[in-house]
Amino acid sequence: MSVNGQNRRARTTRIARKLALAGTGAAVLALPLIGATGASAATPAAPTAATATTYPDNLDGWIRESLAIMAQHGIPGSYEGIHRNIMRESSGNPLAINNWDINAVNGTPSKGLLQVIDPTFQAYHVEGTSWDPYDPVANITAACNYAADRYGSMDNVFGAY
Q1: Residues 89, 96: Cα–Cα separation, whole Å
Q2: Distance (Å) of CA 75 to CA 5, 18, 102, 149
Q3: DSSP 12
Q4: Which distant-in-sequence residues (6+ apart) come within 8 Å of 95 by Cβ?
Q5: Residue 46: partners with Cβ closer than 8 Å, 6 or more residues away
Q6: How many Cβ atoms are within 10 Å of 99's Cβ, its own excluded?
Q7: 133: Cα separation from own chain's centroid
Q8: Residue 146 in contact with residue 140, Cβ under 8 Å?
Q9: Distance in angstroms (rounded) separating the CA atoms of residues 114 and 111
Q10: Burial 54-69 (b: 16+ CB within 10 A, else e)
Q11: pTM > 0.85: yes or no
């Protein structure tokens, strides 16, 4: 091994020790940035409970999980804008269905928290969410994707859309 290789390994080891003292979470996140070499560097670490985010199975959790997915896909929206529209559209009932408006008369009733019709849900579905329009997170995320395309953001929606 060359002298440069030994210096790099020693420097990497020192940095890793310092990061370990700062907290194992920081060390795990920073080590791939150090530029480790060898076959072991290509092996992904197993996910831990500390890195996985869990959300409560309620309106607050569904909105927060949707916002996280939206952030990954560049879809704008705020908690307040989403919550306001959900309360107007479904009062927070993920199984709400509108069987009386023009969409229902035409055979495509609005469904879920944000009252999305099936063609709109399918057209604006976001990867990584369920294909079930009654799934709260999928419904919120698809509706926000649609609202972003049509109105700039769900935050700009103040009535039926």
Answers
A1: 9
A2: 44, 37, 28, 9
A3: H
A4: 112, 134
A5: none
A6: 9
A7: 16
A8: no
A9: 7
A10: eeeeebeebbebbbeb
A11: no
Q: Which residue has the tokens 């972003």?
A: 148
Q: Which residues does residue 116 pair with via DSSP β-bridges, in sequence order?
A: 111
Taking each helix axis from N to C terminus, what angle separates 3-22 and 24-34, rounded to the nearest 10 degrees?
Answer: 160
**What is the per-residue DSSP string for 77-142?**
--HHHHHHHHHHHTTT-TT-EE-SSHHHHTT--EETTTTB-HHHHHHH--TTS-S-TTSHHHHHHH
Q: Which amino acid is at 56?
A: P
The label of the residue with tokens 């009386």 reads 100
DSSP assignment of 13-76 equals HHHHHHHHHH-HHHHHHHHHHH---SGGGGSPPPP-TTTS----SSHHHHHHHHHHHHHHHT--
Residue-wise pLDDT for 92-142, tens only, equals 999 999 999 999 999 999 999 999 999 999 999 999 999 999 999 999 999
